[in-house]
Amino acid sequence: MTHPSDTGPAPVLALKDISKSFGAVRALKNVSLELFPGQVHALAGENGAGKSTLIKTLAGVHRPDAGQVLLDGEPVVFHGPGDARDAGIAVIYQEPTLFPDLSIAENIFMGRRPRRALGRIDHKATREATAGLMRRLGVELDPDRPARGLSIADQQIVEIAKALSFDARVLIMDEPTAALTGSEVARLFGVVRTLREQGAAVLFISHRLEEIFEICERVTTLRDGARIASEPLQGMGEDDLVRRMVGRDLEALYPKQDVTPGEVALSVRRLTREGVFTDVSFEVRRGEIVGLAGLVGAGRTEVARAVFGVDRWDAGEVEVDGRGLTNGAPSAAMAAGLALVPEDRRAQGLVMDMSIERNIGLTGLRTTVRAGLMDRGAERSRSLDWAVRLQVKYARIADAVSTLSGGNQQKVVLAKWLATGPKVLIVDEPTRGIDVGTKAEVHRLLSQLAADGVAVLMISSDLPEILGMADRVLVMHEGRLTAEIPRSDATEETVMAAATGRVA
Amino acid sequence: MTVTAPNPASAAEASASSGSRLADRVFKMRELAILAVFLVMIAVTQAGNSEFLSQQGVKDLLLNATILVLVATGQSLVVITRNVDLSVGSTLGITAFAAGTYLHGGGNPVVAVVLAVLLGVGFGLLNGLLVSLGQVPALVVTLGTLYIIRGIDSIWVGSRQITAADLPGGFVDFGSGGISAVPYLALIALVVLVGTAYYLKHYGSGRELYALGSSPEAARLAGIPVRRRILAAYTFCGALAGLAGALYLARFGNVDSGTGNGYELTVVSAVVVGGVVFTGGSGSVHGAALGALLLTSVNSVLPALGVSSVWVLAINGILLLLAIAVDRIVALRVASALKKRNARHG
Ligand SMILES: Nc1ncnc2c1ncn2[C@@H]1O[C@H](COP(=O)(O)OP(=O)(O)OP(=O)(O)O)[C@@H](O)[C@H]1O
Ligand SMILES: [Mg+2]
């Protein structure tokens, strides 16, 4: 038994020998963790290592099968998320959990709004407090706007604002930065540093290792549900951390193959969607990977959606292999050989209650139908093939996608579209929430596809990924294309300058 | 919108309030649309039959709407939480008969009303417990209680009947009386309606009903006591069905084992026509009340215009489909408007 008074400050919140299983899956095996006031603690591990499960145990969402949760050294049992919240624990979950019908202000203060006499809600104070939080995070979001239709990044920001509004003693963040670009992350870290100085304990999860090294003091590594190490980050290198997570050394993270671009496969001319993006023109050649960079809200996703036909465009034209695409017709785009891996996997990419196999099979219905009937055997073998290639971690391929960890869900989305064998592949945040090992694998795959003659347009908020993978970088700023930078000139500075509109 | 001073604070305020105005407009639009349809309908009828809007005519219009407004108000709360209560018709029938029996035995009218409400509360609790504890869809659970309550009612009532003659004169007079054209019953419904609307907008637990209808999973993670809220919504709905039962007795003075049969469908129609979205999370009780007013007025308008009342059901159906179509179109428009607004944020 350790007594809190033995070693410096006592942990505010601790887990002791926690185990948790879902059916046959042992998500956590005897894991211990201690969070100290004034310290930012990182939790690292591959997709499906058990990070989110651990967080949900701390937050009272899951009840551990064995082990204890200790608050200020005393064992506690959280009967639900409300209990953990009342104990001063604020949590940002991996998947945004907003109420689409309610305003942003209401989302943030749900369950604990400022009150007036007789227990009535003080709507004005709620709105003002929300506006204050938005200022602190440096974003412009109207507190009265309903949460429906917010981009993933904005949803993430609302989640962050919600967690900050607690003035919590413990702040837990499960991949809060996955959808954010550099400037929002910098803002977030600024706020986290302030909280740390005020004595809050912070637990931080990210698959972007540079972020872990920037903001955290200690790191706990999980592998297959077991704790591998818990140690100070000082003196550690990224390679050491990767080795703990993956259990082996990693090959290159950005295995870009050099290719000579072929003829133009995708050509976008003067594309405009009123109020969203204006006069966007670019080309992607066979064999090329073109990166599309920009800040959150610059209109990158919107351009991709319009090109694929999910949204209509107001002016301009899109051609694949020299043949024009019909405005607003995704099926025509698919028939022409275009594939789009969307950013919002829950809403647009997956049918959560359907099996992994069926989800991957969805896009291939045309090729796996024989005499009007589904060829289940063909669907299964095709799905298995892709699941294995992307190293999806699952118990059975017939399990519902909703039981997968966040990163593994993302892999299923990728598999689903790669299985169509596209000529032009548009990927929107392809490695959002994917661990380093698989990230390298996805990059290798994209590189391989390009080498095989596929034209790839890659939207990413992860700047190193853009710089590492793209032959050319297009940069958007406030709905316009502001720069086109060849690989040789692309650096963090040039891309950021164009993304923030600092170049003419 | 005009901004007089170019100072940044007021500009920010202006843009915030323009945002809220957009949202408000969209939500109010629905209520305004129903109100417009209602007024046009009344105007046309009045033009065809100048007797229609006499004092007695207005009074009848309001009296007819009152009971539906009450039950629809309770139903809205349940529908907002992404559930439904199909047993309201049965509850109304049995509580009306219970109150009648009590009064027939010489009971006090106020106690009779309280009795009906308490009985309604009991059935509401039953529904709430079954829905919130059992993992069975509300549609199925309350379809079950619809038949159970109706069954109990039939066994208990048999072929008996309560008529106005069995009731104290004051009670019946109260049911048809009023202050000039405004019936007392309508005033009761109005008080309940305004109170409920105020509660939904200004109290935390009221907003939580919207939250849990909007996303049950997120509500759980936000620490909202989901089961307790659903239980409360059903209890309130039951209570209002009970109150409506007592008022039904006062208004018609005539109750048998078939009273309220099939009423649940009218109630659900009124709620949906009034813009309370069936998948939960949005809508308002005054919308539902307007929906109720519209549907009951169709009943009075057609005879006044000399149209056979066999058309009433068909017209109700058309209104329902129209309402759903409008919802869908509005939702799409809002979505695209919001998307454009998104893109403009840095
Ligand atoms: N509700 C559930 N039902 C069944 N299995 C589950 C459930 N939740 C998680 N799991 C399984 O538990 C394991 C750990 O998942 P967890 O979400 O904790 O991973 P993670 O470390 O957060 O991964 P990622 O980086 O991808 O988010 C996975 O194998 C996952 O499939
Ligand atoms: Mg996770």
TrEMBL record, chain A:
Xref: InterPro entries: AAA+_ATPase, ABC_carbohydrate_import_ATPase, ABC_transporter-like_ATP-bd, ABC_transporter-like_CS, P-loop_NTPase
Domain ABC transporter span(s) in chain numbering: 13-249, 259-503
Gene Ontology CC terms, in alphabetical order: plasma membrane
Topological category with respect to the lipid bilayer: Peripheral membrane protein
Family annotation (SMART domains): AAA
Keywords of this entry: ATP-binding, Cell membrane, Membrane, Nucleotide-binding, Repeat, Sugar transport, Translocase, Transport
SUPFAM superfamilies found in the cross-reference section: P-loop containing nucleoside triphosphate hydrolases (SSF52540)
Keyword Plastid set for record: no
A GO molecular-function descriptor: ATP hydrolysis activity
UniProt-listed Pfam families: ABC_tran (PF00005)
Cellular localization per UniProt: Cell membrane
Record protein name field: Ribose import ATP-binding protein RbsA 1
Record organism: Streptomyces naganishii JCM 4654
UniProtKB/TrEMBL annotation, chain B:
UniProt subcellular location: Cell membrane
Subcellular location, principal: membrane
Cellular component annotations (GO), alphabetically ordered: plasma membrane
MF GO annotations: transmembrane transporter activity
Keywords from the named record: Cell inner membrane, Cell membrane, Membrane, Transmembrane, Transmembrane helix, Transport
Transmembrane parts of this sequence: 32-49, 61-79, 110-131, 138-158, 178-200, 230-250, 262-280, 287-305, 311-331
Signal peptide extent: none
Pfam families linked to this entry: BPD_transp_2 (PF02653)
InterPro entries named in the record: ABC_transp_permease
Bilayer topology annotation: Multi-pass membrane protein
Summary of the function given for this chain in its UniProt record: Part of the ABC transporter complex LsrABCD involved in autoinducer 2 (AI-2) import. Probably responsible for the translocation of the substrate across the membrane.
Subunit field text: The complex is composed of two ATP-binding proteins (LsrA), two transmembrane proteins (LsrC and LsrD) and a solute-binding protein (LsrB).
Protein's recorded name: Autoinducer 2 import system permease protein LsrC
Lineage, opening ranks: Bacteria, Bacillati, Actinomycetota, Actinomycetes, Kitasatosporales
